[in-house]
Automatic annotation (TrEMBL):
It is found in: Membrane. This is Outer membrane protein assembly factor. Keywords: Cell outer membrane, Membrane, Signal, Transmembrane. GO terms for cellular component: outer membrane. The keyword Membrane applies. InterPro entries: Bac_surfAg_D15, D15-like.
Length: 797
């Protein structure tokens, strides 16, 4: 304990504390006679109808209404600390001084109470409730000024009243052809008897009907032609709702061909349109005078107009075009054309316009489709450089990527990548063959923007909108214990749906050959002295696998024109994958009666792996406001070796710890089970498993400027399927696995630069399942033993 005996020292500290208190006063920059908006509160009282029956969809929460407030207090960190306001208050009143301007940029100015904005908030709250069917809602404002502290608290007292509901849904559609389309599949309509009278849902129904009609040739139809008539009886919450679809109106025409002033308009029927022709403008410039007609190639009613050169084949564009001449216009076909053309990397921008033909052809209505394309750069190269520091061992990484986006003038993408990593090692390295970590990796691939597979119809392959990838790779690794080479080749398919929110990958075949040309004399014996079943994971082996991955999210794509996006209340993502290996090779070995060597089949004298592996990963973030969110994550996986294998290949096994795992441990330093690692340099080989479980929860908050804070807790571990000698305590048992779940907690600091996020996390061990360790370090924490620092890019989940 530090004691200040000097009176001068105590006086200086008191003056300094008083100065800081004055400098950080939240009302320092609030003008005299004004109030700082300190707190706002929405208090909701809900009433029901005379029956007293309240349905779950009648509940209204204050969090649902916060976004309608026109004025809210300064942001609070952890719910009580106005850090940004305090930072702003540290600045002086002289705005010409760079220090004051810098503090103001980092901070947030005080929110001055404004009675006009408060009244606007009251009106917006009531309007929002009325739009949701609470027609009798009322909102009152209660203000509580504190003249001495120059602060204002505002409460919005909301009484929702009962909710109106649709008792009967009717349709008033004079055009019988349109009526048939609208009523063709009533299951797709969302407005039904018993549903709330919600104006947002009414508007969604207008959009749905409009989309359906535009998919059936009604190109000129707009949702403004759709209106509603709501009939309510006195003292009743029931609403008789009628959807009305009006015909277009045109001014009356006199016999002389004029439209006299004041003459009533007459209605005309809604018309369907057919596509006459499709024009691709391959070198479109928005500000040009459209003097692009230099070279035109026609294939029936599809025309391709080239500018500088024929950088893309007409057949490629025709294959990606779902707008078919002679067919009824369909907005769905336009969207599919957008999605298919977006697969062509040589195209930078795509814009499709429809132009009605001025003179009807054969008495029908026709339109021409113009597809304006802007090309991307054909070739590009990037270079990456990074530095690392692992417990004092310095290293660096260099990466280079080359791309050619238009191989064969068909927008085939060629990619070549090279990466080199190096890290020096310190300490006693006697008996090891390398004094460093070194890795050289190269990959070359060709991506075709189409589904390449035999025995399938061209129309099916065109509509599936998948891309085909062929790739070969080589990876050379030097570790202190061994030198390893991994060579691979792959053929896979990728496709997306739901505007990119759903993605699938099918690995038709992925072949890897793992070769260890050099290792320490006792390396194999050290990792498996009494269990030879482990040895082949670190010897030469061959993997031939197939796999499938599914990914889905509801995350909205951020707009490039606005930095501040509307808050999405809930964001989730789901990833599931599965793979199998060795089954085809095992079947061939069995059918050909090949002899086993040491109990296993071999291919070209090399043992091949046989296993099945599955993983699932789910995360969900609840955004309470723009600056506060809570994220949850659960991940699980299992790999089962069988047939020609008794253990999973090392590169296919799971590991725990690290920046995206249980953050109280470093990467590959946790588990399996209660296994106790003693040498972090060489024992990483044993810290892998066949079963994985991971749970995370993280509270995220905006601080100021680009800084974000986080509080997190992690739990999880890995286990083995079999009882391996070198991984004592690592086998999974239903009766004891829960005791072996490791737990950690910590804090994080992030820097969000919009295009990328830097993450700094400090994790502390809470429960350590390792044998002969302190199992509950959260009770007696020690910095050197329990703290782990992580630096990474992007959120952990």
């Amino acid at each position: 304990m530090i004691r200040f005996r000097s009176i001068k020292t105590r006086t200086a500290i008191a003056i300094g504390t008083l100065w800081l208190a004055c400098g950080c006063s939240p009302v320092k920059h609030v003008p005299q006679g004004k109030y700082l908006l300190d707190n706002t509160e929405i208090v909701i009282t809900q009433t029901t109808d005379t029956s007293g029956d309240r349905r779950s969809d009648e509940m209204v929460r204050s969090s649902d209404l916060v976004n309608y407030l026109r004025q809210t207090p300064n942001h609070k960190v952890l719910g009580f600390l106005k850090l940004q306001l305090a930072t702003y208050s540290l600045s002086g009143k002289d705005s010409t001084h760079w220090y004051n301007r810098w503090l103001r940029r980092l901070g947030q100015p005080p929110v001055i109470y404004n009675s006009d904005l408060t009244e606007a908030s009251r009106r917006q709250l009531r309007l929002a409730l009325v739009n949701r069917g609470f027609m009798q809602a009322s909102v009152e404002v209660d203000t509580l000024p504190d003249s001495a502290r120059r602060r204002m608290d505002v409460s919005y007292l909301v009484n929702t009243g009962p909710r109106h509901r649709i008792s009967r849904m009717n349709y008033d559609i004079a055009d019988t052809a349109i009526a048939r389309i609208v009523r063709a599949d009533s299951a797709l309509l969302t407005l039904r008897s018993g549903e709330p009278f919600d104006r947002d849902r009414l508007d969604e129904e207008r959009s749905l009907v409009t989309r359906r009609l535009r998919d059936h040739g009604y190109y000129a139809f707009a949702k403004d032609y759709i209106s509603y008539i709501a009939d309510t009886a006195e003292n009743s919450l029931d609403v008789d709702l009628t959807m009305v679809i009006r015909p277009p109106m045109t001014p009356g025409i006199s016999t002389e061909g004029n439209a006299p002033s004041g003459e009533e308009a007459i209605s005309i029927p809604h018309l369907t349109y057919r596509v006459r022709s499709v024009w691709f403008i391959t070198d479109y410039a928005p500000n040009s005078d459209r003097t692009w007609q230099r070279d035109t190639v026609s294939r029936g009613d599809i025309h391709v107009v080239y500018g500088r050169d024929r950088y893309i084949r007409p057949s490629t564009l025709e294959e990606k075009c779902f707008i078919e001449p002679g067919q009824l216009y369909s907005s769905r076909d336009v969207d599919m054309t957008y999605q298919s053309l977006a697969q062509l990397g040589i195209l930078r921008s795509i814009n499709i316009e429809m132009q009605p033909v001025s003179a009807p052809v054969d008495g029908s209505q026709w339109i021409d489709a113009y597809v304006y394309l802007t090309r991307n750069k054909k070739q590009g190269a990037t270079l990456e450089l990074e530095g690392t520091n692992s417990e004092g061992d310095l290293g660096f990484g260099i990466g280079a990527t080359y791309q050619h986006r238009d191989v064969g003038r068909a927008s085939n993408l060629f990619t070549a990548q090279f990466r080199m990593n190096y890290e020096s090692l310190s300490g006693n390295l006697s008996g090891l063959i390398n004094n460093r970590y070194t890795e050289y990796a190269g990959e070359a691939g060709l991506t075709f923007p189409r589904f390449l597979f035999p025995f399938l119809s061209g129309e099916y392959k065109r509509r599936i909108k998948a891309t085909t990838e062929l790739a070969v790779s080589m990876n050379y690794q030097e570790r202190p214990e061994y030198t390893r080479i991994i060579a691979g080749a792959a053929w896979k398919y990728k496709w997306s749906a739901r505007a990119g929110r759903e993605r699938r990958t099918f690995d038709l075949v992925d072949v890897n050959y793992v070769y260890l040309p050099e290792s320490t004399i006792d390396f194999i014996n050290q990792i498996a002295p009494s269990n030879p079943l482990l040895r082949y994971s670190y010897e030469d082996h061959f993997i031939m696998r197939s796999g499938y991955t599914f990914y889905r999210t509801n995350r909205r794509i951020a707009s490039a024109t606005s930095r501040r996006q509307p808050v999405q209340p809930t964001v989730y993502s789901l990833r599931a994958s599965g793979e199998v290996a060795g089954n085809l090779l095992y079947a061939l070995s069995s059918l050909t009666h090949e002899k086993k060597h040491n109990g296993v089949y071999r291919l070209f004298g090399i043992q091949y792996s046989q296993y099945a592996k599955a993983e699932v990963d789910y995360s969900i973030a609840r955004n309470f406001a723009y600056r506060h969110s809570v994220a949850f994550h659960v991940g699980a996986g299992i790999g089962v070796p069988y047939g020609n294998s008794r253990v999973l290949p090392f590169e296919k096994r799971f590991y725990a710890g690290g920046a995206n795992g249980v953050r109280g441990w470093g990467v590959r330093t946790l588990g399996p089970g209660s296994y106790d690692s003693r040498n972090s340099v060489t024992d990483f080989i044993n810290q892998c498993g066949d079963i994985s479980l991971l749970l995370n929860v993280e509270y995220r908050m905006k601080l100021f400027w680009v800084f974000e804070g986080a509080l997190f807790a992690d739990a999880g571990n890995i286990w083995t399927i079999h009882n391996y000698e070198n991984q004592r305590g690592g086998m999974f048992h239903f009766s004891t696995f829960w005791k072996q779940i490791a737990a950690s907690y910590g804090v994080g600091l992030r820097m969000d630069f919009s295009y990328f996020l830097l993450r700094f996390d400090l994790g502390m061990k809470a429960h350590d399942p390792a044998a002969d360790r302190e199992h509950w370090p959260i009770i007696h924490p020690r910095w050197g033993r329990d703290a782990t620092f992580h630096f990474s890019v992007g959120y952990p989940f």
